Please model this.
Amino acid sequence: MPAQSEHLLPLLAPVESLPEAAGKARQLADAAGPRVLDLLFHLPERYVDRRRITRLSDAADGDVATVPLLVESVTAPRNPSQPWVVKCLSERAMIDLVYFLRAKWVGPWLHRTFPEGAARTVSGRVRRYGPRWQMDAPEFVSPPDAIPAIQPVWPLVKGLGPRDVGKAMAAALARLPGLPEWQDPAHLRRRWPGFAEALRALQAPEALPAPEATDRLAYDELLAGQLAIGLVRRAVLERPGRSLVGDGALRERALAAFGHEPTPAQAGALAEIDRDLAAPRRMLRLLQGDVGSGKTLVALMAMLRAVEAGAQAAIMAPTEMLARQHLRTFQRLAGAAGVECALLAGSVKGKERTRVLRRLADGSLPLVVGTHALFQEGVQFRDLALVVVDEQHRFGVAQRLMLTEKGSETDVLVMTATPIPRTLLLTQWGEMAVSRLEGRPAGRKPIVTRIVSRDRRDEVLAALRRAFANGDRAYWVVRAIEEGEAHDNVAAETTFAGLKEIFGDKVRLAHGAQSLEVREAALGDFAAGRAQLLVATTVVEVGVDVPEATIMIIEQAERFGLSALHQLRGRVGRGSAQSYCLLLPSAELLEGEKRRLSVIRDTEDGFLIADADLDQRGGGDALGTRQAGQIGRRIADPQRHGGLVRVAHQEAELLLEKDPGLLATERGRAARNLLAIFDHDPSLKPLAAG
Model:
């Protein structure tokens, strides 16, 4: 790490390095992330203003109030169903503090905390019952607690309380160093606070935070992303490459085996890729396309061009299941052209692994499909000219770089099956070359999507019986593997057991906790028709291609993101038969959940869905490994801060024109701190992997 970033080391330390996090480090890491910096960016979802109501006479039923009172008595419950009650007087109003606690320590603790005649101040939500007020288990009692005027409400996980976060957050804020300013002075004249000041205003507010604090941090992350992308683009343009030119013979034979001409969108994307491959510089191109748009065929055609030029090509997938799916397609099409393709994954061992490694090293194996195993030490290529990374968001930039460094002057094509909204392209990819596939292959019918209430489950089961009698197959997808939280009361294991009682040996189960062999066996039975119903978690979201599957059932559909629902729906409709997607939501839906499911019901346009998903939950981080959260990371809101994206893009370009290496000027060196803060390696080397 450059010297100017060394003072960031306390922020990059693990959260357990905070003594105030003792005993809760694991929960804090689950909620926020593993580092002190992650905790600082764990922003409150709302704030409770405890200054607003200080007299019961000003309160309405259900308000949060902070009121002084005089303790009259502590009353023990007469039976286990009754609570402890602390009777108090606040001015002339009567108020009961109610505690539904059963432990032996409760009585002594209440008598110590509320001695008769003592003056206390309590804060919590009040309810009115006739002439008396009631507050259930006050959130704060002073003394001994200090009652915050403005209380941040952070997202929590099981076993983590607001006081745990508050103590750790105060310690993390104390570690914030003084940093040189990286923002343009013109932005600071907008009344934007400094970086540390903005964090303190949001995490330990003395008053309700002004919007400028969030705006400042949102722009920081947008600028960091744009600087990182700008550096990538410049690095790619400056790197030497080589021209890959083929005679088209291998492609022609593979397309003959495919049996269809490429769609206009595929042909257009391939022409753009061919121009990049032929140019004497390295290619860094994003191929994005909706579910079923035909990215795999485009990728294979690009890889065959590298083989025609006498070199090797590799495609890396995030899971072995998806890698094997690609392998089957490649063996059928490339095999027809006389081009051998092999698999390199964790399950490939012994003599077969030795054979694949030897043939990659001597160049006799032109195409390889693999997982993370491709970039492990010991894997050598004779002449790796093209790397294709599928589902790129599931790999970190360092992992992608490790594979590209297996070759010399390697071209890179990254693919995503999650459509990226046009507004997000600039945000996350800047000037990166983008090829976009729109439309679906010929012969595929639109998928009929319906929202079906859970009380119609018997009708769904009857429809499955009719479909199975016709030889069709179906997916039944749930979120959880086992029953856990109350809202995860639909689980794969129990659903599988129930459906197996109904449909017998026609049912198989697939989820991420199974061994690869067990899961692959279930998927194999389903693909071969030995099973007609596959109960699964989201392990089937990508990489499963069963044209005979015509029904997708998704339980608790409201708990999935729009993009996930769209990807799951894309597992059906892959043949010529009419297909259906049935969304089975929970009994009671919030308005936002209804709107989200309506989007899926009303359109199959993945780009419209991606736009809606971006509006609702943000776009993740295409430069790193995070995919949840808002643009760039977790702060910027696409609706509120959308106008700042282009400003950040332009400012990054100006800054890099003046200081290409971010080392020559004071502001450039400060910007390297910004890159480190937002997880863009200041060395910039990993970014070159795309």
Remarks:
- The chain has 23 helices and 21 strands.
